[in-house]
Amino acid sequence: MACLINSALPLDCMGGIGGLKTAYFLGGEISSTTVVAGEITAIAGTGSFYEYQLPKDTAFFNEAINVSNTAGTVFYEGVLTIILQKMSAQKRNQILLLAQNRDLRIAFVDQNDITWVMGLDRGAVMSASSAATGTAPADANQYSLSFTAQEPTAAYPIEAGSTLADVVGGGLTVVAA
Known about the structure:
Strands 1, 2, 5, 6, 9, 10 and 11 form a seven-stranded mixed beta sheet that branches. A four-stranded antiparallel beta sheet has the order 3-4-8-7, with helices on one face. The chain is built from two helices and eleven strands. The N and C termini lie far apart (about 50 Å). The mean pLDDT is about 95. The chain is mainly β.
């Protein structure tokens, strides 16, 4: 049997928290990625990862494992959903560029300070978007954006204890908001 299970998994201590802090969208290309023990230790390419700061309790990532026993295939479909509060021309213009992109690479930081990268192999696309002004004074005035990637492997975390800025190089930079 080629796919032997090779490790036991203990129950973790409680202490994790849900949600995302920040997303980074790559305006450029990745030329190489180094993965060691399932974690990204280096990313090289050209361009910049642009930081999008996210309001608390509004963004999430969900990844489904899709298996077809009949076809003998497995792929991972990750969906990142973010909210950008307060509609503006600047945000509108960036959303138009994101929507036209066929090959997004997106990094995001969860509330446990783990940075993940989606769309690494096949890229991600904007799969849904909406803008809403709200009706009442307490209603949200915002953009809601969803990005989907269908990949041969699950989203990769950045090496434990590292940030995106720690692992990018070879012509890539990180631009803070």
